[in-house]
Amino acid sequence: MSASPEKQRAREGGFTLIETLVAMALMGLVLSALANITAQWLPNWNRGLDRIQRSELISVALQRIGADLAAAEYVSVNRDARRPLFDGSELSVTFVRTALGPNAGLGLDVVRVGETTDRQGLVTVRSRASFRPLPLASSLSEQIHFGEPVVLLRAPFRLSFAYAGQDRIWKSNWHDADKLPAAIRLTVRDAASERILSISTVAPVHVQSPAQSDCAQPADGCDGRPGAPQNSQGNSQGNSQGNSQGNSQGNSQAGNAATGQGGSL
C-alpha cells in the first residue's frame, strides 16, 4: 500500500527559505571581501609591472647610447682641422662613428644624441647623418642635417651627460678639445622628483687621440719618450765615410805597386 502524498513530501530533504537567505548573505560577504582585496592588490601589481618595464626600456636605451659613444672615432671636420668632430653639452652630444644599421654601407656617420620635444613632451632622440668634410668656418648645425630619429627616452625621465679626460675630472661640456673624452657619464633623472636613478652608468670611449703614425716629432716619440736616432742620416754618414776611406786606401796601394814596378824596370 503506497504512502499518502503528505508523507512523501515530509520525507523529502531541502533548504528552508531562512537557510537559503543565510547562505546568500555569507556568499555576498565572501565576494565583497575578495573584491576589496583585488581592488587593493591589482593597482600595486600594475605599478610594479610598469616600473619593471620602464627600467628595462631605460636599460636598453643606455646600452644603445653607451655602445655608440664607445665607438666614437677621432675624425676631424676636414684635413686642415687639427681637432676631432666632437661637441658635448649637458643635454646633447655629437660625434662621429662607423656607420651602423641594416641599410648602412661603408663610411662614417655623424650621430647626435640629445633632448628635444614632440607632441607628448620631452624626449631623448638619436639621429644621424652621413659624414662629409665641412668648411672650417661653418657650424655643425648649419651644415649637418640629421635624420632617421629614434626615440630612446620619454618624460618623465631626462638624460644628461658629463665628460672626463684622463684626469677623471668631470665637466658639463666638451667643446673644441684636442682629444676625445676618456669617459662619458650618463645620468638618468626623474623630472618630477629630480631623483637620480640608480641605473645611471658611465660609458668609456675607446679612442681619445689620433693614431701614433700621424705624430711627427723628430726628437720625441708620440708618447713623450725620446725617439730613436734617425737611421737614414746615420747610414748615409757611415756609408759616405766608409766609401771615402776605402777609395783612399785602394788608390794608395795601387800607387805603391806602380812605383815598385817602375823601379825594377
Give short descriptive properties of this protein.
23% strand; five-stranded antiparallel sheet; alpha+beta; 10 strands; 265 residues
Describe this structure in words.
The structure is a single chain. The protein is α+β, with helices and mostly antiparallel strands. It has a domain at 64-214. It has four helices and ten strands. The protein has helices spanning 5-11, 17-70, 140-143, 231-264; strands spanning 87-88, 92-98, 108-118, 121-130, 147-154, 157-164, 170-171, 183-190, 195-196, 201-204. The strands form two sheets. A five-stranded antiparallel sheet has the order 1-2-3-4-5, covered by helices on one side. β6 and β7 form a beta hairpin. The longest helix is centred in the first third of the chain and has 54 residues, at 17-70. The protein is elongated. The relative contact order is 0.10.
Order of helices and strands: HHEEEEHEEEEEEH
Largest β sheet strand count, sense and barrel closure: 5 strands, antiparallel
**Count the strands?**
10
In percent, how helical is the residue content?
Answer: 25-40%
Oligomer description: single chain
Low-confidence stretches: 213-240, 250-265
Summarize the structure.
The protein is α+β, with helices and mostly antiparallel strands. It contains 4 helices and 10 strands; from the N terminus they run H-H-E-E-E-E-H-E-E-E-E-E-E-H. It is elongated.
Topology of this structure?
Layout: H1 5-11, H2 17-70, E1 87-88, E2 92-98, E3 108-118, E4 121-130, H3 140-143, E5 147-154, E6 157-164, E7 170-171, E8 183-190, E9 195-196, E10 201-204, H4 231-264
Antiparallel strand pairs: 1-2, 2-3, 3-4, 4-5, 6-7, 6-8, 8-9, 8-10
